Amino acid sequence: MMDKSFYSNDVLEVAPALVGAELVRTLPDGSEKRLLITQTEAYAGAADTACHASKGRTKRSETLYHAGGTIYVYLCYGMYWMLNIVTGRENDPQGVLIRACAGADGPGKLTRALSIDGSLNDRSILSCPELRIEPAAGEVNIITDKRVGINYAAPEDRDRLWRFILDARGQ
DNA sequence: TTAGTGATATCC
DNA sequence: GATATCACTAAA
To answer: For residue A69, what are the CA distances in angstroms to A129, A158, A170?
Structure first.
């Protein structure tokens, strides 16, 4: 299910599908950490003014243009690494921000908890021993909401319900 | 509500 | 070369 074709689907399909999945991080010392993904956000290409690619292909956004399944990690506010999974086809700059996991309620805290940094940028989630994603065990209920921290975007993009949240009360 | 933090994009 | 901005967080 979570193979190359899965990640080459549209970001609006992949982002909700990653909610409830498990992020598995293997550290240099061999230990393993597993966190349930509880929130994702979709960033949908050059036409989405909230997406890094809306400013064109730059050194930072280069990774977003790569094939679905590529890991996109960048530094924000000088101290927080953001973890994204590229979706869609090559030269189609879309990506899913992993916003929160169980026990880590923010993208910066999440990467800190998993010791993720820029060294994982541009790797493939499909063939990366240090970081992989395992599919959700069963059905999950999802709530949608507006994306966070994108006040710089055009009003119509700010209002899109492209944040996907695991409904804990679900079942 | 605001300071902190530094890479990146954009402007001289 | 200089400046403004930023997919955030912790402390107040």
So the answer is: 14, 26, 28
Give chain A's mean pLDDT.
95
pLDDT on residue A17 = 97
User: What are the extents of the domains in chain A?
Assistant: 4-166
Q: Which of residues 59-118 of A touch strand C (CB under 7 A)?
A: 64, 72, 76-80, 82, 84, 95, 97, 106-110
Write down the CATH superfamily of domain A4-166.
Answer: Methylpurine-DNA glycosylase (MPG) (3.10.300.10)
pTM for the predicted model, two decimal places? 0.95
Q: How far apart are CA A109 and CA A90, in angstroms?
A: 29
- pLDDT bracket for residue A1 (50, 70, 90): low
- Burial class of residue A129 in the structure, from the number of CB atoms within 10 Å of its CB (0-12 exposed, 13-18 middle, 19+ buried): exposed
Strand partners for A163: A41, A145
